[in-house]
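Handout, tutorial session.
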Amino acid sequence: MRHIGQIRETNQDSIYTLISSIPRETGDAILGLFIVADGMGGHAGGEIASRMAVSAVARRIIADLLVPAIEGAINVSLQALMVEAVQEANRTIWDQARLTGSDMGTTCTAALLLGRSLYIGHVGDTRAYLIDARGIHQLTSDHSAVGRLIDMGQLDPSEARDHPLRSQLYRTVGQHPEIAVDLVFQPIGDATHLLLASDGLWGCVDDAAMLRIIQTIDSPQRAVRALVDAANRAGGPDNISAVLVRLV
């Protein structure tokens, strides 16, 4: 679900979800592709950038993984594919921005679930979480000034929400000709849910509140609506986007 929030005049977030199955000799494997991109830039630039990022990443993964898998001929490194797909999105947006004189850019967090393994390509501060019986676990690092302070041990995560530099990103998709893409590989183990959330959600609703909503509402669609409603009740200062996947 994505929502414009309470203050913004446009929704610059884009999301994409795909659930499929891949035929294998040992039994079909579930494949899920989930992407959240939070755009930035004036004159609708952020909306265009986030949509281009989602399109480029999805197109690359479908072409290089899903189509060959259907034909029974997977011959690709999934780790490399996730990184290259986001880098391809970066080049596409960078070229378009140079052509139009735009300052557009976007975050992009793309999660590929294949069987019981999760591969994430990540740039920006849109987050990926796994939820299990022990709690909620952030898998990605925020590419923001505050995120860097947390990684260096100079700021407690509990102080990040109200920090004046929280929204200052140092790495985005489309605003430089080349980018480094974080890769996360994570077996899902006994996790019950995967959550992708733009900062319009996690910046308004803390981890404990998100966990409580997810664990007490059985339906993923109702739970994600409750998450968005909670962010709007907290002021909804930004666009709000979330993808919630039940894994069991």
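The second record follows below. Compare its token runs with those of the first.
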Amino acid sequence: MKRAVVLVSGGLDSATTLAISVRDGFEAYALSFDYGQRHRIEVEAAKRVAASLGARAHRFAAIDLRIFGGSALTDEIAVPKTDAVRDAEEIPVTYVPARNTIFLSYALAWCEVLGAGDIFIGANAVDYSGYPDCRPAFISAFEQLAAVATKAGVEGTRFRIHTPLISMSKADIIRKGAELGVDFSLTHSCYDPTADGLACGACDSCRIRLEGFRSAGLNDPIPYANR
């Protein structure tokens, strides 16, 4: 089996991406991050997801993006909760500066050690929150970087960043995950969960998730403080 490093955050997108990598015949090496996010619930969710979907190994990289801040997920900035329509050109405060660049760099390093040329990431450019590092242009640029920035790339390994969800709606992602046996009750998506771990139901991530389940005609199995 070919090896692949799969970024697993604990959310439904990365869970579905992991399931797709396994379906496609890859031996999946799950990589998650404890990056100084304001809560550890997603760390526990990532452990559950990787175990449930048969990852060959699961590693956590501990980095502290709080030293830079600049995001509602790593700094003392309120997570937006509003029904107002955000300007499509506006990058929200939940964007973590350079996060996917950092995460993919770690995945690339593990690929070199494993002798792998494939990385899976659950980036999505349809039902997403306006993050620049979820766009196809970014993924393509990172593949070019990998080719010239690594020993393996210089020696002929062609690195491929797989983004199976990049053009799917949230409803389609949920349907695909259900088809592949993803247990969505193990996942976590909320940007601002309550002290006892309930999803808030009001942040962008919760609202996109809930609308995705409604559109897919399925019930979201996780509990919410406000549904």
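Points raised in discussion: The radius of gyration is 17 Å.
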